[in-house]
Structures are given as structure tokens and as C-alpha cells.
Design brief:
Blueprint (H helix, E strand, L loop, with lengths): L2 E6 L10 E4 L17 E2 L7 H7 L6 H12 L4 H6 L3 E6 L7 H10 L1 H14 L4
Parallel strand pairs: 1-4, 2-3, 2-4
Length: 128
């Protein structure tokens, strides 16, 4: 099972980080591209622009954000690759602990539950 950590992009990298993945669509303000040590900028698994704007880190919208974001991620092939790694560190700029990386971490740590969620969503939408 993959070991998943969440860190801010401003935190120093460590040997224990494993594969470092930046999981936001927008580059962090004030950070030069060569300053962030990462293995992958996974824009494809970042929340969509519409979802990111709607959520706007409003804690009152967290539960609905989490649900909608999981629905977006049901179609991601990139998550499958990440879950096969030994250690993954998801990098975010956000100070909020209620962020997309936390959702991804939960998915990777509970893969079968996530696949069930996706199958149920597809069934409800008439896609299966």
C-alpha cells in the first residue's frame, strides 16, 4: 500500500518524501519554477478551475467540494499510477488543511472504497 504525505510547497524536501507531486493547477505565488523540487506537476488531477473557484477554500463548502472533486477524479488514470508507488508526497501551496491534496490522499489510502464510489456514481448516471 502506498504511503502518502501532504506538504506545503514552501516546506523543505526530505529523504522520506519519495515521489513528490505538485497537485494544484496554478503555480504558487512568488515561487520560481526551479525552486520547487518535484517529480511531477499533476495538473490533470488538480480540481477543475470551476470547482476551485466555487470552493474558494470556504470551510462551509468542504463536504460538497470533497464529493464533487472525487467525482472529477473518478476518470483519472494518473491516480492509478500514483497508488502503485511506495511513497508519494502531495505538494500544495494552500495554508488550509481542507485542500485537494487531502482528498487525493484519502483516495489513495482507500482505493477500493473510492472505486466503489465511482461505480455507484456511474450507475446513478446511467453510465454502467
Amino acid at each position: 500500500m502506498v504511503r502518502v504525505m501532504v506538504k506545503r510547497v514552501y516546506d523543505a524536501p526530505s529523504e522520506e518524501d519519495g515521489y513528490r507531486v505538485f497537485v494544484e493547477r496554478l503555480w504558487p505565488r512568488g515561487m520560481k519554477k526551479d525552486a520547487l523540487r518535484m517529480d511531477l506537476w499533476a495538473k490533470s488531477i488538480a480540481p477543475s478551475d470551476a470547482l476551485r473557484r466555487w470552493y474558494s477554500h470556504d470551510p462551509a463548502r468542504w463536504d460538497e467540494f470533497r464529493k464533487r472533486y472525487r467525482e472529477e477524479l473518478c476518470h483519472s488514470k494518473e491516480l492509478e499510477g500514483l497508488r502503485r508507488m511506495d511513497t508519494v508526497t502531495l505538494l500544495v501551496a494552500s495554508r488550509s488543511e481542507l485542500n485537494g491534496a487531502v482528498v487525493i490522499k484519502g483516495i489513495l489510502e482507500n482505493w477500493e472504497e473510492f472505486r466503489s464510489f465511482c461505480r455507484e456514481n456511474a450507475r446513478r448516471a446511467g453510465l454502467q
